[in-house]
């Protein structure tokens, strides 16, 4: 009897510990993120992206996840609000100073900066800016992590991510070929963001980058197709 009581007490203690782990540790370790593209590159995703990491540095990465490079860390106290590819292969970023919005052009090779003022950034011709793609489709993200794509009156649900209503991802930009979308996800337990890439049909998803600043500054280019950008700051 004493041995049975001891075993019951041990099992009861284990059960209590398990319940506490589920209540306390479990929610904090829930990761709805799709598989890492850095660990498992996907050659079907074309082009390269610019984004700003949590240190305020500009990073370029293959959309497939195969490689990435931190190419420039702007100086000064004001954070980068937007970053874009230019048609000549240079980069421009937007920040706000005492004079207002200011675009800075960066040569990716020499890292030299040129102040181009408030008139910089993407031109209106040939640019694709979220939320519409080249087929005039848009993305709607609903409660429960549901991703819907289509035109007004003809939306279709393509994917559901296991997230809470308060931490659902947001649309950032389409790929220039309209086959992929870049989503931003911010964990409710962190101020840092992630970039998720999702195919137009919702069948393929991957996490391209983590530890980003929460401002959705992103630009995507595919050689011979075009350039797309998140709409913030323009």
Can you describe what's shown?
With 234 residues, this protein is mainly beta. It has one helix spanning 2-25; strands at residues 48-52, 58-62, 68-72, 82-85, 91-97, 100-106, 113-117, 127-129, 138-142, 146-151, 154-160, 170-174, 180-186, 193-199, 205-212, 218-222, 226-229. The radius of gyration is 22 Å and the shape is globular. Mean pLDDT is 82; it is low at 6-11, 13-29 and 124-129.
Quick structural overview:
By secondary structure, this protein is mainly beta. It has one helix spanning 2-25, and strands at 48-52, 58-62, 68-72, 82-85, 91-97, 100-106, 113-117, 127-129, 138-142, 146-151, 154-160, 170-174, 180-186, 193-199, 205-212, 218-222, 226-229.
Task: Please tally the helical runs, counting DSSP H or I stretches of 4 or more residues.
Answer: 1
Radius of gyration over all CA atoms, rounded: 22 Å
Average pLDDT, rounded to a whole number, is 82
User: What percent of the residues sit in helical stretches (DSSP H or I)?
Assistant: 10-25%
Summarize the main sheet.
6 strands, mixed
Spell out the blueprint of helices and strands:
Elements: H1 2-25, E1 48-52, E2 58-62, E3 68-72, E4 82-85, E5 91-97, E6 100-106, E7 113-117, E8 127-129, E9 138-142, E10 146-151, E11 154-160, E12 170-174, E13 180-186, E14 193-199, E15 205-212, E16 218-222, E17 226-229
Features:
mainly beta; six-stranded mixed beta sheet; 234 residues; four-stranded antiparallel beta sheet
């Amino acid at each position: 009897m004493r041995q049975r009581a001891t075993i019951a007490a041990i099992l009861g203690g284990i059960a209590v510990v398990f319940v506490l782990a589920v209540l306390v540790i479990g929610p904090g370790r829930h990761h709805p993120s799709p598989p890492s593209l850095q660990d498992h590159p996907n050659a079907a995703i074309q082009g390269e992206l610019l984004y700003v990491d949590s240190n305020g540095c500009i990073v370029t990465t293959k959309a497939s996840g195969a490689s990435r490079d931190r190419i420039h860390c702007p100086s000064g106290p004001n954070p980068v609000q937007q970053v874009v590819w230019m048609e000549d292969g240079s980069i421009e970023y937007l920040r706000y100073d005492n004079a207002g919005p200011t675009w800075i052009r960066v040569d990716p090779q020499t890292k030299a900066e040129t102040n181009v003022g408030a008139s910089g950034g993407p031109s209106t011709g040939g640019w694709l800016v979220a939320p519409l793609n080249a087929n005039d489709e848009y993305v709607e993200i609903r409660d429960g992590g549901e991703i819907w794509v289509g035109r007004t009156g003809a939306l279709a649900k393509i994917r559901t991510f296991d997230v809470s209503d308060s931490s659902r991802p947001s649309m950032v930009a389409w790929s220039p070929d309209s086959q992929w979308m870049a989503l931003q996800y911010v964990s409710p337990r962190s101020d840092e963001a992630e970039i998720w890439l999702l195919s137009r049909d919702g069948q393929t998803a991957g996490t391209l980058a983590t530890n980003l600043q929460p401002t959705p500054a992103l630009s995507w280019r595919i050689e011979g197709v075009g350039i797309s950008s998140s709409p913030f700051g323009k």
